[in-house]
Design goal:
single chain; 360 residues; alpha/beta; 4-stranded mixed β-sheet; 3-stranded mixed β-sheet; globular
Length: 360
Amino acid sequence: MTELKKDVFYMPAEYAPHCATVMIWCERGGSWNYGAKPARPVFASAIKEICAGEKVYLAVSPTGRKSAEEYLSKEIAGGAVELLDIETDDCWARDIAPTFVTDGKRLRGIDWKFNAWGGEYNGLYDDYANDDAFAAKLCEKLGVESFSARPFVLEGGSIHSNGKGTVITTEECLLSKGRNPELNKAEIESKLKEYLGAKRVIWLPYGVVGDETDGHVDNICAFADENTVLLGWTDIDGGQKERCKANLLVLENAGIKVIKLPFPEKPVKFSQSDLDGFKYADGEAERSLDEVLAASYVNFYISNAAVIVPQFGDKNDKVALEIIKSAFKDRKTVGILATEIIKGGGNFHCLTQQIPLLRK
C-alpha cells in the first residue's frame, strides 16, 4: 500500500462539503439506559436533520435494525439513510470510525487502534474488539481504501482540523498513559502530521473537567473557519475556569481568533431513575448518583444542511445557539435537546464522522 506521507492526503475541515456522514444506532445497555428507548428519538431527530443535506450511513446490529427501521422508515425508503450490517460495542462513530483523508480526487480511511479510551490503564470497558474492528469493516463496506495507523491509538474526538494544515488536540488526552505511552509528545505530533497531512499541531493543555475520554478536544474547542475557533468557556471560579484560561493563552499565542462559548449554567447529573435503567457488562465503568456529566455546547456537528447543537434545558441554550449561528452564517443552526445523549457519555459530534466530498 502507498505510504500516506508520500502522498498529498489531508484531513479536510468538518465545515468543508461532505458526501456522507457515518453514524451507529444506539444499543449498549451500559451506555444507554432502558434499552436505549429514551435516546433513540433524539438519534432519529439528529439523523433526519443531517440527511436533509447528505447521505447517512447508519451501522446497525441484528437486534438494533428493527428499531432503526421504525424510527427512520421514510429516510431509509428514500435512500437518504442506508443501513449497514456491522456489529459494534457502542455507537461513538467519531471515535471508532476511520478518519477520512483525501487528496481531492481519492479517499482513504485512517484505521487507528481503538482501546476504549484508555485500555488497561483507564479504559471504559474490557471487550472492545468490535469497536476496534469497525473502521476497517466500514471501509470494506464502502469500497474505500483503508490505511492502517496501528499500533497508534487515537480516537477521532481527540482531533480537529481546519483543512489548511492545522490540527488541534489536547495534551490531557493524547499524552495520557492510556494512549501511546511509549511515544513522547514530539513523536505523537509527528504521527499526527504524517497521517492527517498537517503542518502544525496546536496542543491545548486541557479538555472539560470530568470528561471520561481524558479531555477530547471536540468537547472544548472546534474550528469555525481556518483561523477561528469556538472555545468552551466559563468565568465561574473553579477548575474549569483555569483550564479555559490556559487553553485561551495557547490559542492566542498561535494566532487563532477565539469565540468564547459558555457551558451550561447548571450541571447535568444522573438521577436515581437514570441509574436504574443501565445494564452493565463485566469490566464496564458504572455510573454514580449525582455524577456531573461533561455537558458542552462545543460538541456540535457541522453537516452540509445544518449545525446540530446540543441543548440541555439550560438558560445558556439560546445563548450558545446564537453564538454558533453567528459563526456559521452559511447554514442553519438546529438545537436538539440532548440530555439523553450526554447520559450516554458524549454528544452529537461524538456520534458522527464525516466523509469528505471529492472534487469532480
